[in-house]
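#onboarding

Welcome to the new folks! Below is a worked example of what a typical request in this channel looks like: someone posts a single protein sequence, and someone else replies with the predicted structure as tokens. Don't worry about understanding the tokens yet, we'll cover that in week two.

Example request:
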Amino acid sequence: TAFQGHLLDKLWPEIEVNYTYYDQGPNNGRTQLALTAGLVLGRFELSRHARLIFGAGYQRTVGGFYTFNHTWLTTGRLAF
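Example response:
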């Protein structure tokens, strides 16, 4: 689930919550909760039908169990 705001024309700050439940495998029955703070910049017009979007975020798990922690994320999108 992501909670996203809209500032100015092209600035989208967001907070994302990611919950995972492991059913089977070595982590069977465990859960993991991760929070991501991010910033998306875009829709920059490239042409009449194409827009460019960039984003970055920092993800951290909260709680005792995790399979990852302290992760930087980036994204680039071309919307038509």
